[in-house]
Amino acid sequence: xxxxxxxxxxxxxxxxxxxxxxxxxxxxxxNLPGIIGSVIFVVTILIAIIGPFFTPQxxxxxxxISLSNSYLPPAWVEGGTIRFLLGxxxxxxxxLSAIIYGSRLSLFISITAMILSCTFGILAGLIAGYxxxxxESILMRITDIQxxxxxxxxxxxxxxxxxxxxxKVIVALVLVGWVRYARTVRGEVxxxxxxxxxxxSKTIGLFDRAIMFKHILPNTLTPVVVLSTxxxxxxILTEATLSFLGVGVEITKPSLGLLVKNGFDVMFSGCWWxxxxxxxxxxxxxxxxxxxxxxxxxxxxxxxx
Amino acid sequence: xxxxxxxxxLKTYFKTFKGLxxxxxxxxxxxxxxxxxxxxxESGGGKSVTGFSIIKLIEEPGEIVDGQIIFEGEDLVNxxxxxxxEIRGKEISMIFQDPMTALNPILSIxxxxxxxxxxxxxxxxxxxxxxxxxxxRSVGIPNPEVRIESFPHELSGGMRQRVIIAIAMATNPxxxxxxxxxxxxxxxxQAQILKLxxxxxxxxxxxxxxxxxxxxxxxxxxxxxxVMYCGKVMERGxxxxxxxxxxxxxxxxxxxxxxxxxxxxxxxxxxEGIVPNMYDLPKGCYFAPRCKYRKPLCETEQPHxxxxxxxxxxxxxxxxxxxxxxx
Lengths: 305, 327
What we know:
The structure holds two protein chains of two kinds. Chain A is mainly alpha-helical. Chain A has helices spanning about 1-5, 15-20, 25-30, 30-50, 95-130, 135-145, 150-160, 165-195, 195-205, 210-245, 255-265, 275-300. Chain A has a single domain, classed as MetI-like fold, CATH 1.10.3720.10. By secondary structure, chain B is of the alpha/beta class. Chain B has two domains: about 5-230, P-loop containing nucleotide triphosphate hydrolases (Rossmann fold); about 230-325, no CATH class. Helices cover about 30% and strands about 25% of the residues of chain B. Chain B has helices at about 45-55, 80-85, 110-120, 125-140, 145, 155-170, 185-205, 215-220, 240-245, 250-255, 295-300, and strands at about 5-15, 20-30, 35-40, 60-70, 75, 90-95, 175-180, 205-210, 225-230, 230-240, 305-310, 310-315. Chain B has an eight-stranded mixed β-sheet, with helices on both faces. In chain B, strands 2-1-4-5 form a four-stranded antiparallel β-sheet, covered by helices on one side. In chain B, helix 3 (about 110-120) packs parallel to helix 6 (about 155-170). The chains are: A mainly alpha, B alpha/beta.
């Protein structure tokens, strides 16, 4: 009798066991795109974090760089050396090292921007959805106006006002990105607000803030998780676009987008590798993140089941 | 003073785009300590709004426009939201219709019981856990030490309603408002839940307002009955009086539409017609268009509340006095 009840209580099960026996994990094992996406995502994150300790060169350190190594092709092309696997750029920087350092910057920017825009967006959405009325109208009209412009255009505009810099790119991305969260969360809050458990928590005398954060917010997080994954991919692309257009990060610490731009000028004079490899890497990262996002969307959205 | 709650001339109106809806229009009621009151009526009669008005959880565009809600000698209508938060859950609590949605799906039972205790008592964490387990035991949940860790989806409908009752009882409130607590449950469970509620209310000497459309439930559970129709009280009095010798045609209609085993009727009686549109109510008595006994006066003038016998009030021009309900 005792042991029969034991399986009912959730705290007895260890977390790993719970995950392994869950439906999501089962579906994950049978979903190849999901596996590929998550592997790409984890590997790129790992490369960004620990990669710089293993790179042949520190592209930020001028002592490491020698102009005599400029425009070397990748190792397998005639004239390339094994030291610079993916070739070098005009200043003699190793492309492989630059990509690893650049991906670190790109991922840092996009993940930070995602977290910040997520925070602001959730707050705005919660307040708008929960309180309604004037504050909702104001917040939602702002998001309407913002969504009617292409995000990139708006980001370019913000960057030309603020100037270059990592922090400024993050600010621009947050300003562009919070609206999607706000709209998503507001929609969810409007739905959850009508559920009886919200009334029930009012009848025990719970105050608004506790109801908002303890009861409603956790129930709205599923679409936020999905949106966040896809948003990281979008932010990487937007940041790359900004840098490519010359309004992104500083030239001395190039992100992936800036690397593409650097090579773009000499692309048609035969030095294709400077642009192509960073570009490919952007593509792989965003591809992986989108696969992961798709998997999460299918899993967490009960409507698609 | 035995009276716990006195509601006088309560009016809750909803101002909508289509017009003014008088969901609760001049309701009077009194409730003593330890007494149970049943509010009955068809859907849209203003029963639930009356319940929500008493704890002042009326949302926009609704508003309590007039009346007094005197709870323990203090008028709740004038209380601020902050003062109401103190009263809700501690003095007055509520049980909801649908146990499937009245619990937050992603929080464990423990957390949800804990919340009420944390707000209104000075107990520490382990005392609260202990109290929570005892509460679950008191509502008849087997093995409460283990069950308290469960999530709502792991419990059946009847179990969930028991948990909701446990939460409502957590601070031993003086008044419990149960808004159709058994409507969403199947019949066998309904009886269990009602029996449980009755026992608990009697044991702890709580007052109970039971909102339901089921007169049979009321006849077994409550001391007093109030029949509502289109926001107005049609008839109120002790349960005995209402069931045995109701005087309002509407109450009669409700009573005769309850199926009975022993009678040899082939068809069940129904009340002809439908509930009128709340935006466009009849000029006279709201029930007149559907009333079998209506006279010209009923269609032109609103009746007044009249006391036929002691504590038996009827809102009708021509109350029925033949005293036999079972036709």
